[in-house]
Amino acid sequence: SSSKWVRLNVGGTYFVSTRQTLCREPKSFLCRLCCQDGPELGSDKDETGAYLIDRDPTYFGPILNYLRHGKLIINKELAEEGVLEEAEFYNIASLVRLVKERIRDNENRTSQGPVKHVYRVLQCQEEELTQMVSTMSDGWKFEQLISIGSSYNYGNEDQAEFLCVVSRELNNSTNGIVKEPSEKAKVRRLLGCID
């Protein structure tokens, strides 16, 4: 009982930690199990002297690491809900709050949906460029200008033609389906030189 090191058998997997680590949360199950004088929780020990805990060892790693360094680190293959369940079982209130915050943040990020980019390529003549760029609105931004030569001849003047690439970010939370304004009239109004 006076040893600095404690051996735990969690669902058949052994973990070793210090009493100081296990007592970081004084009201926790682990502290009550092995850190108080005359532990208030009676627990069986296996033949090696390890405390027997009938819980999933997969989710115990993040619990123990949190007690060691105070940071919530969850491997990608572990479900946060599983870590939350174990944090609640072991009665580690600060960890319960952290995991709930992370779950809430992830849900908010997912509900916002992915940001998608829509690109448009517009053909316009040299004299229309200034008007087109100055009238872009509704989130459209200029990406690239490509000269495609001078195929039109008005009177005696050759008119340079360009392809103008514009883009817009779309972020929509409707079941992950991105809706984009596709009406030509709206795009004409926004950009001023389609067709």
From TrEMBL:
Give a Pfam family name. Answer: BTB_2
**Residues in BTB domain copies:** 4-107
Q: Which domain of life is it from?
A: Eukaryota
One GO cellular-component annotation of the UniProt record comes to: cytoplasm
GO BP, sorted A to Z:
proteasome-mediated ubiquitin-dependent protein catabolic process; protein homooligomerization
- Matching InterPro entries, A to Z? BTB/POZ_dom, SKP1/BTB/POZ_sf, T1-type_BTB
* GO molecular-function terms, A-Z: cullin family protein binding
Q: What CDD domains does the annotation carry? A: BTB_POZ_KCTD2 (cd18389)
Any coiled-coil ranges, and where?
Answer: none
Q: Which PANTHER family match?
A: BTB_POZ DOMAIN-CONTAINING PROTEIN KCTD2, POTASSIUM CHANNEL TETRAMERISATION DOMAIN CONTAINING PROTEIN
Task: Tell me what this protein is called.
Answer: KCTD2 protein
Organism of provenance: Glareola pratincola
